[in-house]
Amino acid sequence: MSNDDTIDTLNDLIETSKDGEYGFRTSAEQLKNSEARQLFMQRADECNKAAAQLQALVVQMGGSAEDSGSAAGAMHRGWVAVKSTLTGYTDKAVFEEVERGEDSAMESYRKALASDLPPAVLDVVERQFEGVKRNHVQVRALRDQARAMDA
Question: What is the DSSP string of 45-89?
Fold first, then answer.
């Protein structure tokens, strides 16, 4: 993989991380469950740190690092707000939307891992992917718990 291709891949992951940060923060504001709200704020901070780590790699490689999320992420965050309004801001609805966002993040990381990244970059991306998977499992568990309470 060329240096430019690696930078492009990292910039895509920066957008994904920023989308996660904004998505978790926005969603935390909607939640009634204070423990879940605190968890989502922690996840937002972790996404911010992941983006900063990727930005540093891009700069080390001589590239210009992204500093914002994607248009798709902005639309998703908007959808979280709209859907939450339509469904009365239920925690279950927020968890379902966040899980969709985490599905997208997992796909972005899988795509990056399928490319031919340099070893040092690959190590960082693999570690971050473990965090994305953990987030997905936690959000799914919260969603399942909320669904069980509705049943």
Answer: HHHHHHHHHHHHHHHHTT-----S--HHHHHHHHHHHHHHHHTTS
CATH of residue 73: 1.20.1260.10
Range of the domain at 10: 3-150
pLDDT tens digits, the chain, 151 residues: what are they? Answer: 899 999 999 999 999 999 999 889 988 988 999 999 999 999 999 999 999 999 999 999 999 988 765 566 566 555 566 565 545 678 998 899 899 889 999 999 999 999 999 999 999 999 999 999 999 999 999 999 999 988 7
Sorted by sequence, the CB contacts under 8 Å of residue 118 that are 6+ apart come out as: 1, 6
Number of domains in the chain: 1
